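Lay summary

Proteins are chains of building blocks that fold into shapes. Our project writes down both the chain and a compact code for its shape. Here are two examples, one after the other.
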Amino acid sequence: MKKVHFLVEGQTEESFVKRALRPHLSPRGVWANPVIITTKRTKRGPDFRGGVASYKHVRKDIQRLLGDTSATLVTTLIDFYGLPHSFPGRLEASGSPQAKVAFVEQAFSDDIANNRFFPCLSLHEFEALLFSSPADIARALHNRDKESQLAAIRRTFPTPEDINDNPPTIPSRRIVNHFPNYNKGLFGAIIALRIGLQRMREECPHFSAWISQLEAV
């Protein structure tokens, strides 16, 4: 079994890797191990984890995971939205969302400079995957009357990954506008599991390409 470390942004992504990606990859001989980003280390007590406070913290975690010589690969599941400007390539990235994320991922990879590192940045955030199925969002949040409104948002964009990254209009904000009770930690992974990897891959090409690479490890 080949071990792959996933450096993830928070508990939702951790749960998603354990409950969706691990069962999918395990029959292919890949063991998915999620690790939440360390935002602050303490001498006593547990470290603080979750979120991307700075590139420095992300880089240290990646180097630490690469230090595990038993791991075949280290990858990431981090939102492109809200990346600190200290991230490699973030200020220089331009063009379409796909072009921007490809540029930053390449700059990220170049900075780490290790052939066992394969980064993935979510376009534009985890909740974009949920727009693969507006119906499942509405059902999980117990208001199917909102399905048509979410579907209208989805139809505005070529793919869920194109839903724009301005603070008022990012995917999570669009969900909260219709479902004020939406909480990523409570509902994010649950909705994703209801949708399933196949539907998300059909709708989200950048995400699907990443999964394809992991399947080929």
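And here is the second example, written the same way.
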Amino acid sequence: MTAVSDFYPRRLVRDYGDVEGEIVACRSSVALFDFSFMSLAQVSGHDALKVIARITERRLDDMASGRIRYALSCGPNDWLRSDLTIWNEEGGRYIVMSGHPDDVADLVDQGRTTGKDCSVEDLSDAIAVLSMQGPDALHALDDLVDGERLRVLSYFGFAAFDIDGVPCLIGRLGYTGERGFEIILPVEHCAKLWEQLAQRARPAGFAAADCLRIEAGFVLFANEFRLPVTARDAGLEPFGGDDAAPSRFRLICFRAETKEPPILWRPPQDVVAPDSGSIAITSACHSILARGTIGLGYVPVTGTEPSGPFSDPSGQFRDVHEVSKPFYDRFKQRPRGDWN
């Protein structure tokens, strides 16, 4: 099985020459991302939800078709392993999308044991995932698809579309903190569609995506889940996981001083649990919006919660103070906003 620590974003396209320019494009107009590294499975049949429930505790039986839900998966030790999106197709079919291949592998194993009441198909090698993110995402796609149908697509909703003869599923998601869309399509059409979309949006890489997520206060599972934590520790209890155990840690957003501004900082393979007065920093970046270094990290729950300064055992961050989480768009209105 692949461990979280074996997920290497550096294997993906880090950037297209200008990380800050890619971030600005997403915040002010539109950026294009290739997220085809994602693992996908289609789970269908009478027991589909029972099989999906083996990897997430997020309630799904009340989700309408054409809707997407964010969820969390746990490993065998019950610590958080990854985050997921689950797409409810009509007819008892669900697409499970994860950045962690173990989630799909576990679903395939469960499908084999369940038998005739459920089938699980690993689509990871057959499907590509592109994403248009930013306030101009709708405008960039408007004349390629049925623009009126796309305009009324609700947040965390999806529908089938046709782009130049290519059948796609387009979901409205805002994982960068901006309005945007994810496009699921057959992998053999990915290169052609990428070329079309790259004429309408600035290509952006993994570093920009992660910096945008840090600004928006969204976890990066390959970073924030390196420390053994529960959903409650990560402030994600509504989305699945063990919500009964008391919190040991609290995930905060912080500002700090650094000797060199980090484009994107990732923790070492083993993250040490924080002691009183210290912070286990899990993600950090140089934020144009903050005009300095911001990041995410865990502080211990002590009952008397200081806002800093917290000490960083690695010595790489100084004057670490908590700020509102998320730092950017505190009430998460931007990704949910309309297109006016």
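What can we say about the second shape? The mean pLDDT is 90.
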